[in-house]
Every structure is written in structure tokens, then in C-alpha cells.
Backbone:
């Protein structure tokens, strides 16, 4: 087995114990995005798998994935158009032509990369909301689902309930640790 060489690995941590890892495998010309959260297993059981197939299907990793993460996506960068190198031995007209072609190639590459980057940037939103999306789709199909509790943060949860076939209710439990935040939340809730 050939050992894959990861380059430019970045690990980022979010405020709700979510961990992201972005790495590249130079030999395979691919970029990998990995995700871990406190509630991944629960979300995957209640609509997460369907959401992954529907929105991220072409990027799902079909082989072995990082055991420290719950979801891993693979972006194939080998099919992106490549720029040409300008050599000093080329005449000025050829260099100018290649510069123009490289500018067009960069614009084409940017048009291909931006939608994928936006999709990856929205991963957490799509993933954490998957149980809600599942319930809403069930309501549209006049199906009934059992209630689901998602502990998305250490002291915070949300529940997805379907009291009737065409009704979805979502409740959030929010935990404030600072007295000022508690007071502000109380005032806001009283105003509502």
C-alpha cells in the first residue's frame, strides 16, 4: 500500500465542538474535507445520510476515511484546467498569447471552483439541519416520523416533532453561561 502524502493540512475548531480538516493529496490531485461534531451519529441516522447523497453525493469518499472524523468528502482537482508556463526562450508574441490563454484558464478554473467552495462552506448548515429537512420532506409526502432529539452542542439540543402528518415543529434549548446573556435572552423572550 502506497502511503498518501498530505500537504497543507489545516484543522479548524468551531465554537460548538465541531472540527474541520482540509488536506490535499498531491499525488492524487485531490482535496479532502473532513467533519466531526458531537451530534454526527444522531444526524446521520435521522436524515444526514440522505442529505449527503442528495447534496454532496459526487464528493462522498468511497474508500477508507479518516477514523477521527464522521464525514469525509473528496474533491478531484485533477480535471481543473491548467495554465501554461512562459519560458524566456519564447518570443514576445508567444508570451503574450500564453498570458492571455492563462488569464482565460484562470477565469474558467475560478468558475468551476467557486460553486464547490460555496457548497463546502455551507456543509455545517446542511448537515446540522438534515433532520429538519427530513421531517419537512416527510410532511410534504403526508408521512409521519417519530420525534428526534439532536444534542448539537454540549448543553444545547433541538427537537424535531411532527404532531400531525403535515406539520413540523422544531424546538431549541439554549444554554447561556454568562449572567448578562441570560438577562438579554430573558428580555428578548419577554418582548416576543
Residues:
Amino acid at each position: 500500500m502506497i502511503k498518501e502524502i498530505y500537504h497543507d493540512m489545516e484543522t479548524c475548531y468551531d465554537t460548538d465542538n465541531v472540527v474541520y480538516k482540509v488536506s490535499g493529496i498531491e499525488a492524487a490531485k485531490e482535496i479532502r474535507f473532513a467533519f466531526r461534531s458531537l451530534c454526527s451519529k444522531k444526524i446521520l441516522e435521522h436524515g444526514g445520510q440522505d442529505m449527503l447523497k442528495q447534496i454532496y453525493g459526487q464528493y462522498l469518499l468511497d474508500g477508507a476515511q479518516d477514523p477521527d472524523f464522521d464525514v469525509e468528502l473528496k474533491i478531484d482537482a485533477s480535471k481543473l484546467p491548467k495554465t501554461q508556463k512562459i519560458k524566456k526562450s519564447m518570443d514576445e508574441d508567444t508570451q503574450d498569447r500564453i498570458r492571455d490563454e492563462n488569464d482565460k484558464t484562470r477565469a474558467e478554473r475560478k468558475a468551476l471552483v467557486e460553486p464547490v467552495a460555496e457548497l463546502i462552506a455551507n456543509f455545517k448548515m446542511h448537515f446540522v439541519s438534515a433532520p429538519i429537512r427530513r421531517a419537512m420532506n416527510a410532511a410534504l409526502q403526508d408521512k409521519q416520523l417519530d420525534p428526534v432529539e439532536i444534542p448539537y452542542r454540549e448543553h444545547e439540543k433541538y427537537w424535531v416533532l411532527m404532531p400531525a402528518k403535515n406539520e413540523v415543529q422544531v424546538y431549541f434549548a439554549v444554554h447561556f453561561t454568562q449572567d448578562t446573556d441570560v438577562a438579554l435572552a430573558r428580555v428578548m423572550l419577554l418582548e416576543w
